[in-house]
Inverse folding.
């Protein structure tokens, strides 16, 4: 059974198994919505259906995919798209998102997100595939910028130009991950805020923030396993002043701190969101 979408605003948190108990018993006061990855729940039994139903009754839900492989060489998986569309309708998500990346080849998943080449050929292919995905979902489709560590071959355009043209030609929304922008900016030597200003910010429907690991030589690895750093908090606030009050998600997938520490991060994000956007 599908349910009508509910308003998504303020600060959200990813629904992850290590958080199930605390979210049920003592959710952070500032928490206003949850993000759910369909792959973690589709065709899964045990406690997962009950947890999802409880979450759906208490909070608006947004869905975020992990395995679409939008820029990959394999044909789009029709069974997967059908199942995701049904899941999105079931939880009443107002949009669905996935990454601008490739993650599989010849039917084998690498369980990581690799960048697509910033070339005209790759762009044309991503546009066609994104239009197909959008038509299959029945809700708006948002793509997320990823962190990447080496470009595959010679780029023909900048990442921001590639992303902008993809969004506009396929009429997509943008899930803007400011931590990924910051990680890439530090690793590859460009201005993070300049990158963000070059994007069509009117298309942003959601923002991600997360923590990352810093190697001894300064190289940064996106892990979703550390606290959000002060520089990413600052980048988020400056971005929100441009986008307006779009919802912000705290991503944490490993290295979970105490739930109280996680709640403090949610509260800090809520404070930034209210200050930057004037939200009540």
């Amino acid at each position: 059974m599908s349910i009508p979408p509910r308003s998504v605003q303020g600060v959200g948190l990813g629904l992850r198994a290590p958080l199930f108990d605390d979210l049920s018993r003592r959710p952070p006061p500032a928490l206003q919505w949850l993000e759910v990855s369909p792959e973690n729940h589709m065709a899964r039994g045990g406690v997962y259906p009950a947890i999802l139903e409880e979450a759906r009754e208490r909070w608006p839900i947004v869905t975020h995919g992990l395995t679409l492989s939008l820029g990959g060489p394999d044909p789009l998986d029709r069974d997967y798209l059908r199942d995701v569309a049904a899941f999105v309708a079931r939880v009443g998500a107002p949009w669905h998102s996935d990454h601008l990346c490739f993650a599989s080849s010849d039917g084998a998943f690498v369980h990581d997100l690799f960048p697509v080449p910033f070339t005209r050929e790759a762009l044309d292919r991503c546009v066609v595939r994104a239009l197909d995905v959008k038509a299959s979902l029945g809700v708006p489709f948002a793509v997320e910028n990823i962190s990447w560590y080496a470009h595959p071959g010679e780029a023909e355009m900048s990442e921001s130009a590639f992303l902008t043209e993809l969004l506009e030609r396929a009429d997509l929304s943008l899930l803007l991950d400011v931590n990924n922008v910051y990680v890439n900016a530090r690793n590859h030597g460009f201005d993070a805020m300049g990158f963000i200003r070059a994007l069509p910010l009117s298309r942003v429907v959601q923002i991600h923030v997360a923590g990352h690991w810093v190697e001894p030589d300064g190289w940064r690895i996106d892990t979703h396993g550390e606290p959000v750093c002060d520089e990413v908090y600052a980048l988020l606030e400056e971005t929100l002043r441009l986008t307006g009050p779009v919802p912000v998600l705290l991503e944490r997938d490993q290295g979970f701190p105490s739930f109280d520490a996680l709640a403090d991060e949610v509260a800090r994000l809520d404070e930034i969101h209210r200050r930057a956007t004037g939200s009540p």
Notes: The CA atoms of residues 70 and 129 lie 7 Å apart. The first helix runs from residue 20 to 25.
